[in-house]
Amino acid sequence: xxxxxxxxxxxxxxxxxxxxxxxxxxxxxxxxxxxxxxxxxxxxxxxxxxxxxxxxxxxxxxxxxxxxxxxxxxxxxxxxxxxxxxxxxxxxxxxxxxxxxxxxxxxxxxxxxxxxxxxxxxxxxxxxxxxxxxxxxxxxxxxxxxxxxxxxxxxxxxxxxxxxxxxxxxxxxxxxxxxxxxxxxxxxxxxxxxxxxxxxxxxxxx
Length: 206
Hints:
Blueprint: E1 2-8, H1 11-24, E2 32-37, E3 41-44, E4 61-63, E5 70-73, E6 77-83, H2 86-89, H3 93-109, E7 116-118, E8 121-126, E9 129-139, E10 142-150, H4 184-199, E11 204-205
Parallel strand pairs: 1-2, 1-11, 3-4
Antiparallel strand pairs: 2-6, 3-5, 6-10, 7-8, 8-9, 9-10
């Protein structure tokens, strides 16, 4: 798995790059994981309902092609984009989601935090509060988009929406459970290692 740390990039620019990568790849293309932070943005999934946006602000809203409803991305949130060939991996979408979720559970366990799944609500939760969300798109048997992990972000913009379509859903940062500040690149690299382990990848950093 080729691992790319992209720094802070606008959502639209990253989305366009994922679509282009997926369109151009073939059976010999190495799978990739992109790690990025986004400037503040709300994204509305393909079947997203506008009524889940409770108020508008200076934060832009982008209608995207991933699954799921509306969510928020901003600095201090790990965005892990999974550009995987599911045919080559011989896995389906359900197994893909399960393994990505497990990589987040594995990450938070390093900080003595218990991450849990909730029936019918994809993502990972800590004592009922959501710490990670997942939204994917499959094209040509390959995935793009991925997972968001709340590290040490400003959570207040989530109050402007029904996160993932759930009124009153509470969000939480991993930082809340740690006695010292979390470094973005260190924590995101830890997560990428967990992800690679779950899929049996060796990591090639670029």
